């Protein structure tokens, strides 16, 4: 989403296809590179991330998740304002390459 006055927001998503792969990437992002924190809420000044299918959307049945485009491995990230964009990108790359 974009606001013409402020620009793009910091909400990103990446589909890792399975919950296992999503949790593995989030573990690397949190523990190996300090990219952000795993959480069910995405409102904080630090970068937060969650696997939506097993957290915030866990009450939906599989057909509802499919209709909403929520795969088992969908990670939602709210990029915080701690650190620079370059730092965040480097942290993300290191964790993703490790996958």
Can you walk through the features of this model?
The chain is α+β, with helices and mostly antiparallel strands and 99 residues long. The chain contains three helices and six strands, in the order E-E-E-H-E-E-H-E-H. A hairpin with a 3-residue loop joins strand 1 (2-3) and strand 2. Helix 1 packs across helix 3. The longest helix is centred in the first third of the chain and has 14 residues, at 19-32.
Give the number of helices: 3
Low-confidence stretches: none
Radius of gyration: 14 Å
The largest pleated sheet is described as: 4 strands, mixed
What is the approximate shape?
globular
Strand segment tally: 6
Give the rounded overall mean pLDDT.
87
> How large is the share of residues in beta strands?
15-25%
The sequence of SSEs as H and E is EEEHEEHEH
Order of the strands making up the biggest sheet? 3-6-5-4
Helix share, percent: 25-40%
Distance between the termini: 28 Å
Oligomer: single chain
Structural class per helix/strand content? alpha+beta
Topology summary:
Layout: E1 2-3, E2 7-8, E3 11-15, H1 19-32, E4 37-38, E5 48-51, H2 62-68, E6 74-78, H3 85-98
Parallel strand pairs: 4-5
Antiparallel strand pairs: 1-2, 3-6, 5-6
Helix pairs in contact: 1-3
Give keywords.
single chain; 99 residues; alpha+beta; four-stranded mixed beta sheet; two-stranded antiparallel ribbon; 3 helices
What is the compact description of this entry?
The chain has 99 residues and is an alpha+beta fold. Helices cover 35% and strands 20% of the residues. It has helices spanning 19-32, 62-68, 85-98; strands spanning 2-3, 7-8, 11-15, 37-38, 48-51, 74-78.
């Amino acid at each position: 989403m974009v606001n013409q006055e402020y620009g793009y927001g910091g909400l990103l998503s990446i589909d890792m296809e399975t919950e296992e792969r999503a949790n593995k990437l989030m573990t690397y992002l949190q523990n190996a590179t300090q990219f952000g924190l795993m959480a069910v809420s995405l409102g904080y000044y630090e970068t937060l991330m969650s696997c939506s299918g097993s957290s915030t959307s866990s009450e939906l049945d599989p057909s509802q998740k499919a209709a909403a485009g929520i795969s088992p491995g969908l990670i939602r990230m709210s990029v915080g304002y701690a650190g620079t964009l370059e730092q965040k990108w480097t942290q993300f790359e290191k964790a993703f390459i490790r996958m």
